[in-house]
Write a structure and sequence with these properties.
Layout (H helix, E strand, L loop, with lengths): L4 E5 L5 H8 L25 H11 L4 E6 L2 E10 L4 H5 L14 E8 L9 H15 L4 E4 L19 H6 L3 E4 L8 E5 L3
Parallel strand pairs: 4-5
Antiparallel strand pairs: 1-2, 2-3, 3-4, 5-7, 6-7
Length: 191
């Protein structure tokens, strides 16, 4: 990992940094990390950028930004499962029936601009997201990464992270609802 990397919560003062990253997201640039926060089948009532700004303004922070000095170099979304209606209803990411949607948090999305990939930005963000979730009351932290050994996805299609990234951070696979889709992984706080 690059020792120059720092991580900060996305608050209203950091909104311009998030927008700068979002503009570099290629085909996903209009998402603003709102996809999982929408109801399945819901029609957009307003631009996602506007909806994301409201989430940031209302708090708590919906994720973390990685920096190299003053330059934003990556983004990671993390929130309780209850913040992600679409995630909870999709066949390959839905939680168990008895899941506590407010206490189980999910690291749902990453974005690292191409020139910053391979420098440990995602690993740094994931470690910070786990810590952030536990500090805010999570009993467990989940992810819904893709398994590159099973399905080949572009970086844009791997926005939820990859299975090796999560396994290296101490997560364990807990569900694989469909053979070529997302894997649910869980991190439990160590005593």
């Amino acid at each position: 990992m690059d020792p120059r990397l720092t991580v900060a919560e996305l608050d209203p003062d950091r909104w311009p940094h998030f927008v700068a990253l979002a503009r570099q997201m290629g085909g996903n640039r209009s998402c603003y990390c709102m996809w999982w926060r929408e109801e399945r089948g819901e029609r957009l009532r307003r631009p996602r950028a506007e909806a994301a700004r409201q989430v940031v303004d209302q708090g708590p922070p919906p994720g973390l930004i990685a920096y190299d000095g003053d330059t934003p170099v990556g983004w990671c979304a993390v929130a309780p499962r209850s913040a992600y209606p679409r995630l909870n209803t999709a066949r390959d990411t839905r939680p168990p029936a008895d899941a506590d949607l407010d206490r189980v948090w999910v690291v749902s999305c990453f974005f690292v601009p191409e020139q910053w990939r391979g420098r440990g930005v995602s690993r740094t963000l994931l470690a910070a997201a786990v810590d952030f979730a536990y500090r805010h009351g999570a009993t467990a932290v989940e992810g819904v990464p893709v398994d590159p050994a099973v399905v080949d996805r572009s970086p844009g299609g791997s926005y939820t992270g990859t299975l090796p990234l999560f396994l290296a951070a101490g997560f364990e696979e807990v569900a694989r609802p469909t053979p070529k889709a997302r894997v649910t992984v869980r991190h439990r706080r160590r005593s």
